Amino acid sequence: MSVLAIKTATQAAIREVGSLDAAASVTRVGRSQLSEYQSRNYPAVVPVDVAIVLDEFAQAPLILSAMAQAEGYSIAPIHLGKGDVAEIMESVATKSGSTMATTVRVLADGIVTVDEAHDLIADLIDLQRVVTHALHIVQGHAKAGMK
């Protein structure tokens, strides 16, 4: 199952980059190899160095998050930057709403397919990232008030 999640994440990253051709132009592998990395009919998954490049161009750790989850981990950014509490809480609310919409869509027919489960996992991981960012910002404000 984790291989399928990595393949789904690879497909999402390539989509975010723009296309197979666009992804091939920024990585060390060609179009056909990238196509195989996202194919459920091909056993190999994207190598980490290629995943890093694709995630950088996608501007989100799509593949690396799936790889971490396959090993029982989640990832969080080291440098969160600065942010306003109201802005970050708005992001949490927006992402929470999006995750709930995905949940309702997935559960609507009473059957959760593998692809639907992967969609929900991706949304939950993204929500976790936004919540972690919000937590760091609010904790920073709390520490500053303690001085």
Compact overview of the structure:
By secondary structure, the protein is mainly alpha-helical.
Jot down its keywords.
single chain; 7 helices; 147 residues
Alpha carbon gap, first and last residue: 48 Å
**What share of residues are in beta strands?**
under 5%
Helical stretch count? Answer: 7
Radius of gyration: 17 Å
- Please count the beta strands (DSSP E, at least 2 residues each): 0
Helix content: over 70%
Poorly predicted parts? none
Q: What's the average pLDDT?
A: 86
Q: H/E element string?
A: HHHHHHH
Structural class by sheet pairing and helices: mainly alpha
Main beta sheet strand tally, sense and closure = none
Shape: globular
Helix and strand topology:
Blueprint: H1 2-17, H2 20-26, H3 31-38, H4 48-58, H5 62-70, H6 85-107, H7 114-145
Helix pairs in contact: 1-3, 1-4, 1-5, 2-3, 6-7
Protein described:
By secondary structure, the protein is an all-alpha fold. The protein is 72% helix and 0% strand. It contains seven helices and no strands. The chain has helices at residues 2-17, 20-26, 31-38, 48-58, 62-70, 85-107, 114-145. Helix 1 (2-17) crosses helix 3. The radius of gyration is 17 Å and the shape is globular.
